[in-house]
Amino acid sequence: MQKRGTFITFEGIDGCGKTTQMHLLGERLRASGHPVVETIEPGGTEIGRQIRKILLDARNAELNDRAELLLYFASRAQNVEQVIQPALARGAIVLCDRFTDSTLAYQGSGRGLDPEPILELDRIACAGLQPDVTVLIDIDLETSMERSRNRNQRLASAETRIDDESAAFHARVLAGYHALAQKYPDRIIAVDGRASICSTAQAVWQRIASRV
Fold first, then answer.
1. What is the model's pTM?
2. Distance CA 156, CA 140 (A)
3. At the fourth CATH level, which superfamily is domain 6-211?
4. What is the pLDDT of residues 122-173, one digit of tens each?
């Protein structure tokens, strides 16, 4: 029987560098001979990319918090069914940029939504799938907001609806991530993201290598 693959998620507040670190880990794993699939939430499928436009477009400031929550899980359900589970069944290592921890941090801690319905939606949308390992790229709030502003200006991005939230909102999100790391210490690996890209990548590899 084909051995099931490993599911690794990357988390952190905006601007932490998790996407870069996910790609670097993917390159290193491929160089070591591992089959790797990289995906993103929201947006890992064609349907997910359409949902992502709704969720992150700054023009959709009136989007209701509950509608936002449901859209995130709609994208995730499609990604799990179409990309993640088939790749795991083939024995691949799946790297995902954000998963349900993001929803608990942003919509739970940030928006103040009850975590119980979030976890129930996770059970429905993800069919019981949980990450084997989660890499939390941890940075301070000031660094996060400065990096996000610089990135959005450089890319002239329209995906700023979440970035445009108040500092108090992002502080709640950061606190939510720290609470999750304390709650799930066996799964969530926190790595300081304030160092150089290369130093952070090496720290990620040192923490993750034994698990793959």
1. 0.94
2. 24
3. P-loop containing nucleotide triphosphate hydrolases (3.40.50.300)
4. 999 999 999 999 999 999 998 888 887 777 777 667 688 998 899 999 999 9
